[in-house]
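Retro notes
What went well: the complex prediction finally ran end to end.
Inputs used:
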Amino acid sequence: MSENTAEFWRWKEYNWHDETVDPRDGEIISAGVDVGSVSSQAVVMIDGKLYAYSNMRTGSDSPDSARKAMNWALENTGLALDDIHYTVGTGYGRVNVPFADRAITEIACHARGGNLMYGPTVRTILDMGGQDCKAIHCDERGKVTNLLMNDKCAAGTGRGMEVFADLLAVSIEEVGDLSLDVEEEPPPVSSTCVVFAKSEASSLLREGWSKKRVLAAYCSAMAHRVVSLLDRIGMEKDFAITGGIAKNKGVVTRLERELKLTSMKSEYDTQIAGAIGAALFARALVEKQRKKVAK
Amino acid sequence: MKANYGYLDGSGEFFITIDTDLCIECTDHGCVDACPLGLFEIIVDDYDDDVAAIKEEHRKKLKYDCAPCKPVSDRPPLPCVEACAPGAVTHSW
């Protein structure tokens, strides 16, 4: 008897650095490490410009995940941890980043990172993370003016989507496209709880629904769920989505349809928004320290 | 900044909102002593301001923790709301 050990939830991990830049030319090397519940990202910036980053799965040990993410971001850059002037830790595991000089909440970091990624006109940021969903309203400087976070259950989160990918034996990276390949939009499944949604999906499969149709129903439920969060903080244009779910076209398209708005697009990876924000905070803190010393 | 502490689940929306722009002006922080369950604390936020916040351990059970102050009928004014001089505290339910 063969056993299917495929991990459909597993997404691709990666790192990158800008080979055209010599980091030693920079004045301030700052770093941000976002240790989330599902994924960890490390970002290195040279004078406020993105230089290197990594994105990997968070393990069971937060300090170890932070170290691994940072080491991977620095791989082949010629930089070592000691070369970084200031590091800010963020995300669920922010207090467990052993080499961080300060911890700042992921809410403030996403607003700041979103401001760089989408420009100063962005006002509403929806961070759809692995284990929670945050609706953030910010000003033109990327400062949070209103925030709302829902982390009580997995509905409307990346982890919920991973559960569905495994249930339907569909690669997590294909979920969005497949969910859009339906002739008619099905009614959404339960949006209040992933466990309820999963058992509802099992029943629908038994009734003869195709995988694509079930995925469409779940993506629709997710979109519906987060709209209520956005309604509470007062939705305002320009609107952007960060986090892993921003890469899921099925959820994004349905969310845009429900909001009657198109979300802003960016050349940056949506999953590193928090770490970018943390690195920007780190740079500002170095500048603040230097100003103090100069006085 | 309007910081919303709480959650939304199948039974409804349960958020305590603290307007930190109003809160930073306050030195009294009456909300901390007024809450019979001690839900409030003063923290230094990400922008280095001293502001009131709901303690982490209470954020996911506000519906139950706030229930004693919210009888079904003849509801008196909420102690935290009444004690907040700048009017920074509001409840969603």
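What we learned: The domain at 14-113+271-294 of chain A is CATH 3.30.420.40 (Nucleotidyltransferase; domain 5).
What to try next: split runs per interface for comparison.
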